[in-house]
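Hi everyone, sorry if this is the wrong subforum. Our group has a chain we'd like a structural model of before ordering constructs, and none of us has done structure prediction before. Sequence below.
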Amino acid sequence: MTRAHTTIDSPYGPLTLVATDGVLSGLYMTEQRHRPAQETFGERDDEPFAETIRQLEAYFARELTEFDLPMHLNGTPFQRSVWQRLLAIPYGQTRTYGELAEELGNANASRAVGLANGKNPVGIIVPCHRVIGSTGNLTGYGGGLGRKQQLLNFESGTPEDSLF
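Answer:
Right subforum, don't worry. Here is the predicted structure as tokens:
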């Protein structure tokens, strides 16, 4: 297993991209909760990330609303099932943890969904920022609630300084 990484600038701060055997396996923000240690990211190498960078640039330019990238999402079977459900949440829309739990067949699993959501290794592209609390409030986000608010505002076309 070979790992490589690069860092790119974004409107939400530097993003560290990680590839495992040439396939995207991580996208981490600075000061992100559950961010692996930098030494686990492998050598710096921009080559495996050309398409990821192109699609992220198009996303931030409002030219792309759905990513199409191969990914290696390393997690438990339950975590991977949650992350797959995240990929089905359309751009500019949100779901609650409870709704995702129901979609996964266990309406009582909203806390487990929240924990899996928080361990998402590929932020933004696997849109964990689109999951909100049952009352519509912002709850938990590994990149910080401020960034979650900014991403939701960005996708909804809401001015950056307004409340969700």
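For your construct planning: The two ends are 41 Å apart (CA to CA). The mean pLDDT is 88.
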